[in-house]
Amino acid sequence: MVISSPEAFRRLFGYFEQPNFPPRYNVAPTQPIPVVRVVEGRRQFALVRWGLIPPWVKDPRKFTLLINARAESVNDKPAFRYPMRRRRCLMPADGFYEWQNEGGLKRPYCVRPKDRGAIAFAGLWETWIGPNGEEVETAAIITTKASRDLAVQHDRMPVAVPPDAFDFWLDCRNVDATMASTLLAPAAEGMFDAYPVSPAVNRTENDEPALIEPVSSQQSAPAAVDVGTPARREKKPKKDERQSSLF
Fold first, then answer.
1. CB 81: neighbour CB atoms within 10 A?
2. Residue 247 lies in a domain
3. What is the model's pTM?
4. How many other β-carbons are positioned within 10 Å of the β-carbon of residue 136?
5. Which residues form the domain of 110?
6. How far, in Å, are 107, 199, 202 from residue 217 at the CA level?
7. pLDDT in tens, 76-130
8. Does 122 reside within a domain?
9. pLDDT at 231 over 80
10. Residues facing 45 on adjacent strands
11. Angle at 152 between CA 97 and CA 192, to 5 degrees
């Protein structure tokens, strides 16, 4: 989710642009997401497509959507090696969603910083150039092992980069991929709250403040049997690493 005011994000990330983007409570793959990167020596705000496409892909329609990159293999996978060296970015956010498996049933949870402040996910961006010269900028979120207090919801979580490490992560000129990888660790225990939310978050067309309102466990229980839950999340459990609505 990306719900802080544009000015709050601008103060935190220190870019010069003054974008006026609306709050998003339920961001899905292929939709625009904000990123902060360094261009010509200064931080720049940009909107890119969520789902990284490497430049060597000939037909994106036949390529698996790379929503997330695993921290443990990000320096080894062909799709991520170059952006890890040269195209690291930060992704402004206010939290994310997880689905806890309870006896084969999935219950949606909202995960937000306890102080309810904005945060930055570690990300990678890339530019794909099509056969007709069209350019598409895309990005993926880096995930790592969940902190112990969040592991009950899911065994993975996005990497949260602390503000005092923003420069280090973004400095692709002086900080190599190996050095940057030292930041790819679980968040400190106690940094986040996780609470059950409405199964309405399972439908990407829903995008409203009510999605982040806490509900009781009894209220959220029907999420597991909601026939509207995207099939790719239910039929292919191994794709939990590429959830259809992480923000």
1. 15
2. no
3. 0.89
4. 14
5. 6-242
6. 9, 11, 16
7. 999 999 999 999 999 999 999 999 988 888 999 999 999 999 999 999 999 999 9
8. yes
9. no
10. 36
11. 55
Tokens of 225: 């049997």
Q: Which residues of 180-193 are buried (b: 16+ CB within 10 A; e: fewer)?
A: bbebbebbeeebbb
Nearest to 185 by CA among 124, 234, 139, 143: 143
Tens-place pLDDT, residues 172-229: 999 999 999 999 999 999 999 999 999 999 999 999 999 999 998 656 555 443 433 3
CATH number of the domain where residue 34 is located:
3.90.1680.10
Question: How many CA within 13 A on the CB side of residue 203?
Answer: 11
pLDDT for the residue numbered 216 = 80
**Structural domains in the chain (count):** 1
Residue 27 in any domain: the answer is yes
Residue 85 counted as domain residue: yes
Q: Which amino acid is at 85?
A: R
Cβ atoms of 37 and 167 closer than 8 Å:
no
Paired with 191 in beta bridges are none
User: How many CA atoms within 13 Å lie on the side-chain side of 195?
Assistant: 10
Residue 233, class by beta-carbon neighbours within 10 Å (0-12 exposed, 13-18 middle, 19+ buried)?
A: middle
